[in-house]
Amino acid sequence: MAIEVKVPVLAESVAEASLLKWHKKVGDKVSRGDSLIDIETDKVTLEVAAPNDGILSEILKQDGEEVKSNEVIARIETEASAAKISAPPPAEKPADKPEHKPAQKPEQQNLIEPVPKKDEPKLSPAVRNLLHEHNIDPKAVKTDGDRVTKEDVLKHIGQTVPAEVQKKEPEPTPAPKPAPVTESKPAPTAPVAEVKTEPKPEPAPVSAAQPATPAPSVKTDVRPEQRTPMTRLRKRVAERLLSAQHENAILTTFNEVNMQPVIELRNRYKDEFEKAHGVKLGFMSFFTKAAVEALKKFPVINASVDGDDIIYHGYFDIGIAVSSPRGLVVPIVRDADTMSLAAIETKIRELGEKSRDSKLTMDELTGGTFTITNGGVFGSMLSTPIINPPQSAILGMHKMQDRPVAENGQVVIRPIMYLALSYDHRIIDGREAVQFLVAIKEQIEDPTRLLLQV
Description:
By secondary structure, the chain is of the alpha+beta class. Helices cover 36% and strands 22% of the residues. Strand 18 and strand 19 form a beta hairpin.
């Protein structure tokens, strides 16, 4: 009996998806739950598993093809039908005996499939995508355990690329052109005897005497390039950014905040906080709470535009921009106004881990009324973030830097952070944007306001 393998149900906002790479080929035995292929959508990577035991009898859609929700992409013959498919080869007859013993199926499968297939370590979708993008064999990646991580792949890429370049450079050196030159010119000179003792270094004295001929050819020939298609996520990000700039009147206003009070509070209680809640106390939770309180005072910044209407949201779903191996994603911390600092830190950590492993669900990436992005973790001093439609504003955090400031008539050194608020000027006036940033500044510079909600 043939079982159909279908594309998972996609979100309403996702019309199509792309097939990345089949992990099985036609004729391979599969077990229920085995990963068959990864499907990349505009926002997440979905893993399609085998719905039943059997043999992969047909693949209808190949790598890189676009598919739609619930579309049939392959068929699996169940064990009863699979016996007929595998009957013609005489070597399959002994395989009928182990089928009555489920525990021996993996061993029998090793006899049919290449041994490296089973010896491969388990790969997460994100690692598999990275290996696919760089055409890397998982077995070639060195790892300390039985699982290949992103760090292992990135280290492997950093080690192998320079090696490839070095291989290309020595290739032109043994070219036949320099050979006759060594026979004619250096023959009467004394160094010839030394060159004959070591044949390979012959081109070295020639290049020293006549650097014009071999040197330019080596340098100009080695100009490596690599062409790779954009991932669906990258294409979608590009479309949304261009759309945001074309359809919104984006303006950015700036302010600076003294981080000294928050740093002192964090240093005083971070150890007790981590023991009590099992998560580290970071700065993002302070800014999330401060943004929520400021949004309550200026609800238009928490609103969105729908045609000629303004939709005011009575809830606070804060998007936290995260840079994942696949690109920029913005998971949502829902109902942030009802959460404590510890709950916010826990949720942000959970979403960050999921984004790194490409395990974010569609629900965790859709919606959101306001976004916070922290370019400071990469060293950014100042930037103008682009709003995430249909939202109307985004807060940009930056790197803290010690600067001289005036306090009570004295010049002191304080850790200062620049804040940027990009907003849609169609519905948000400059007065509201500036006051919104001032409200965040006041709460960060006096954290007790967060407790008192003033």
